[in-house]
TrEMBL record, chain A:
Keyword Membrane: no
Phylogenetic classification of the source organism: Bacteria, Bacillati, Actinomycetota, Actinomycetes, Pseudonocardiales
Protein name per the record: ABC transporter
Keyword Transport: yes
Family listed: Belongs to the ABC transporter superfamily.
InterPro entries for this protein: AAA+_ATPase (IPR003593), ABC_transporter-like_ATP-bd (IPR003439), P-loop_NTPase (IPR027417)
Any single Pfam family the record assigns to this protein: ABC_tran
Gene3D superfamilies: P-loop containing nucleotide triphosphate hydrolases
PROSITE patterns linked to this entry: ABC_TRANSPORTER_2 (PS50893)
Signal peptide: none
GO molecular function terms attached to this record: ATP binding; ATP hydrolysis activity
Domain ABC transporter: 4-230
UniProtKB/TrEMBL annotation, chain B:
Organism: Actinophytocola xinjiangensis
Keyword vocabulary terms for this entry: Membrane, Transmembrane, Transmembrane helix
Parts of the chain that traverse the membrane: 20-37, 49-74, 95-120, 126-148, 155-174, 205-225
Short name of any one Pfam family annotated for the protein: ABC2_membrane_4
Full protein name: ABC transporter permease
Amino acid sequence: MTSVELTEVSRWYGNVVAVNDVTLTVGPGLTGLLGPNGAGKTTVLHLMAGLLAPSQGKVTVGDQSAWRNPEMYRQLGLVTERESVPGFLTAREFVLASAKLHKLPDPEAATRRALGIVEMEAAQDREISTYSKGMRQRTRVAAALVHDPKVLLLDEPFNGMDPRQRMHMMDLLHRMADEGRTILFSSHILEEVEQLSGTVQVIVSGRLAASGDYRHIRRLMTNRPHVFTISSSDDRRLATVLIGQESVSGVSMTDGSLQVHASDYGTFTRALAKLARTSDIRLTSILPADESLEKVFSYLVAT
Amino acid sequence: MNTTVMALTTRALLGRRRILLLLPMPLVLIGLTLIGVTSGSGSDGWGPLVFGGLGLAVVLPLTALIVGSSVLGLEIDDGTITHLLTKPLPRSEIVLSKLCVAWLVTTVAVGVPLAISALIAGSPALAAGLVAGALLGSLAYTALFLALSLITKRPVAVGLVYIMLWENLLVGFVDGAKVFSVQQHATTFANTIAKSPMLNDTVPVVTAMIIAAVFVAVGTVGATLRLRSFALTGEAT
């Protein structure tokens, strides 16, 4: 189990603070690094990948310091956002070179395996400069994977990919996470993160705004009423019952269903079923209406 | 030394159009020699100008500048350096491999046309001397320019200032400046072997060797230290 840890890390460029006193741990599994553009996601990833010195604090990858420690790269792979690949090489040559630079015992076999994982065998002998954006991205993932790293960092891996390539990449990341690897990917597109992973690290203006499962984060935001969409055998009667509750701050009827704003998540969810039964109303569906990552994110960025 | 780094560097270097910049200078050198030889006038007249003034003073430093600043500098410019940096390689290994390629390419690109010119002029001893001078000069120059490509964003500009202002201007006014001129080291070394009136060496050969060695050491160690704490700037730059 290899995890990446930032301990009270700050990084500034002259007068500009890019990362401000961030402490976080990314463990095995799939984690999304989320934040608006310019929030410092790339800086955080570069700090983790040892390509940037922390101005303050400590960055470790599985107990090893990340900065000025080339040995660390034996257990870490990085896919940068900048699409920089030597276009004069073929995918096979490029991945093979990575394998050799890692001094793997059997670079040829490792190259075949890595290209197989990203399904690039068919085009492996064409020059990279002739590839589409998605193919280049997969080639770079193969090069980052060739040494079978415990930790994989990806900066905006879905940028410029078409939906099919995106699905493929998501599958790939899931598979690798299931193998027990620590995978962190950054994104500013919420749907991507929501589909891929429940665990997020949210960076806003260089600070860690939240960390953990976003549904759990949402529940901790007690100052924001939770919204539920409820349908039942008798919506109107249920509405009158609910509005009498302390934990409910508002009820509205919208086309065939009930929108309930609950100010106290725990009390409301515990009371709802009992109330329905005593009033002899059948609940047919209860859906949290604002427990999406998008809502959580907009709350975090706004506060 | 890492053969993979060397192979990648060589392919990147020889595959780019930039390398075509190296072609005209040797052609001019050989062309001028041919004109000199066919003109019938003694080689004492045009020889120093072609071999010293053009060969070792212009072709050698400019070739070394183009090659030395490219081997690592181009990768930094286009961002592919991250592929190399995220490998468990000692930084000295990267620098030494890059330097080795730059040295060999420069030596071949300068030494071969110089040797051909000297042979056309009918002096095998001069050819041997010039190749030796190119060998030493290439190493010192490329070590210097490789380090420059890590220290400054404009290695070519800074390198040109060194070649133009220090080696070609200041040396004329301040005698001591010679000691720190790679051009003088190369010329001295070449003439120690060639013993030719075409070359005009001014620095004691031992001094030249020592200072050139210091340049190589400072360049290599400096580049390694810089690469060790090489920080990637954001995607905007």
